[in-house]
Amino acid sequence: MILKYRKEMTMRKRIIEISLVMMMAVVFTSCTNESRNEGLNQVMSVLESGINSNSENIEETSEKDEVKSIESPYENIDFDLTAMPKQLAYSTASRMNMMSEEYLGKIVKMNGICSIFHDEKRDIYFFTCEINDETACCTLGIEFELDDKYKFPDDFPKEKDEVTVVGVFDTYKEGVRTYKTLRKAYMCDAV
After folding, report:
1. Are the C-beta atoms of 166 and 74 separated by less than 8 Å?
2. What is the reported pLDDT for 72?
3. Which residues in the chain belong to E strands, given as ranges?
4. Between these two residues, 62 and 162, which has the higher pLDDT value?
5. Nearest to 85 by CA among 46, 51, 113
6. DSSP character for 85?
7. Chain-centre distance of CA 130, in angstroms?
8. C-alpha–C-alpha distance, residues 144 and 15, integer Å
9. Which of 39, 94, 127, 130 could form a disulfide with 27 if both were Cys (CB 3.0 to 4.6 A apart)?
10. For residue 167, what are the β-bridge partners?
11. CA atoms within 13 A on the CB side of 37
12. pLDDT, tens only, 43-92
């Protein structure tokens, strides 16, 4: 009975993934930015409701160990990109960049490769979590600012380390540019 249930859930998950790819193709071939944004909102709404309702069932049958947080104060995660298929995680991160006001103050968990930029003039280090799409042809980075609990440089990740972080999504301006970041972020065990 459990084996049959797992096969059904795997098939449902695969159908959702295929539907996502097809819907995203339609959205990104739309003629105007307005229709793209409207289509993307519809796709994400459908997928978020499907992921949330199916994730409970998938977790019950999963044999993998869950990711352990290192004393993270975040009990409820609003957007867990680590639990999504790669293409959906990439699409969600892309949507976070395009429509950041919808995600402000939300708890986000993500994993990817750490990229570091050092602004020598101000002697500030910027850390990003780089997320690849399914084919690894496109990369998108979201900055993260580790909580004060972490001491630089000993507790910070190195360039190209695999990282899993959870934090509060926020934006800030420097000059005319708006940047996205996870504030008060905590590093978690690798997925």
Report:
1. yes
2. 76
3. 79-80, 107-119, 124-132, 139-146, 162-174, 177-187
4. 162
5. 51
6. -
7. 10
8. 33
9. 39
10. 108
11. 9
12. 555 455 544 444 444 344 333 333 333 567 888 999 999 999 999 999 99
Residue matched to tokens 């990369």: 139
Of the candidates 145, 62, 65, the residue with the CA atom closest to the CA atom of residue 108: 145
| Residue count (the chain) | 191
Put residue 152 in one of left, alpha, beta given phi > 0 → left and psi -120 to 50 → alpha.
beta
Residue 180's nearest CA partner among 98, 92, 59 is: 98
Cβ neighbors of 134 (< 8 A, separation 6 or more) are 85, 86, 87, 90
φ, ψ dihedrals at 47, nearest 5°: -70, -40
User: Phi and psi (nearest 5°) for 159?
Assistant: -55, 135
Query: Smallest Cα–Cα separation from 45: which of 104, 80, 92?
Result: 92
Tokens of 159: 């360039």
